[in-house]
Design a protein that fits this description.
3 copies of one chain form a homotrimer. With 132 residues, chain A is an alpha+beta fold. The first copy, chain A, has helices spanning 19-29, 55-68, 82-91; strands spanning 3-9, 14-17, 34-39, 45-51, 94-100, 103-104, 110-116, 122-131. Chain A is 27% helix and 38% strand. A 5-stranded antiparallel beta sheet of chain A has the order 1-8-3-5-6, with helices on one face. In chain A, a hairpin with a 2-residue loop joins strand 5 and strand 6 (103-104).
């Protein structure tokens, strides 16, 4: 019920502003009050909310995440993407946004982002709209 | 429906225990079972749950976050607060807490905190109470 | 309503795959559509979603978290577990998973994990199932 599925083609490492897609799901649901759950079904990608204005924030975000969670020679996972798994858990698989008056209750500067930490890949995400 | 708005005046960098404000919202809603969503509409602040007892946990938290996500000379965002954006995404814009018997189902040592990473500012947060 | 309580005995530091326990809660609730909230009531443990296949991902996860959030001599909290509090806030106290057709809408490789950062202890977690 009120579940929407989206697909993305990603580059190696990037943040994709998916706010308009979440808004499309909300409009389709006709829900006026409740919550939207945006969920990423992958283990080397995630969902976050951050600034929607200056693209340098995205560049700095990816740079800072690579410094905090670099690839390490001690990692044993043979796929070689343990740093991406760490980033995914740190950022989280989902965000929950309040719905009020038929709109996402986001701040002026907030956008919802799909975070690719191990692309390029074809990725999915879900938006579930729960009315109250 | 059952949406509550709060305002805070913050210092440069701090954690504010907002548990009592969330409890006030829950009481006003009269909801006995469901979930509370605590949402921060800013991109250099966030919401977390951590220890409500020893204030040194807060001091150590801010110190450790500054070590993991320091300001870096390579950052390009001209506002100079990319480290605060990183912390905000890492900690997250919201927390969801279960409501049972008209109370927040928090552990004994858990408090809900508004995390300021780039103050001083006037900040807002929302509490949405969803009954089931 | 539709609240389930689980107990775990943990080792010093580990990730426990609790997906089957969350599935048990979902089955007991008979809910077909909605959301599951998995909540940890402790301040040095958390809930995350990550790969359910290669156990080396868990090993690398714990190693990388210890590098990003090590114990530091400057920490003042006398219990000596400030690094565990930091990890708990970074990973978060809860996850929210969409329910569709009576099942958790997880990706193929996703499992839900209880993260122990300061064991061994007896730990609890809650699963709340909200239908829509």
């Amino acid at each position: 019920m009120n579940l929407y599925h989206f697909t993305l083609s990603t580059s190696r490492e990037n943040l994709f502003n998916i706010t308009s897609m979440v808004n499309d799901a909300l409009c389709a649901s006709k829900v006026k009050s409740g919550a939207a759950i945006i969920f990423c079904p992958h283990t080397t990608a995630g969902i976050t909310i951050n600034e929607n204005a200056d693209p340098d924030v995205v560049t700095d975000f990816l740079f800072g995440m690579n410094k905090a969670f670099p690839d390490r020679k001690e990692f044993r996972h043979t796929e070689g993407n343990s740093h991406a798994h760490l980033k995914a858990s740190c950022i989280g698989a989902s965000e929950t946004v309040i719905i009020e008056n038929g709109k996402l209750l986001l701040g002026t500067w907030q956008g919802i982002y799909f975070c690719e930490f191990d692309g390029p890949r074809t990725r999915n995400f879900y938006v579930k709209i729960i009315g109250d």
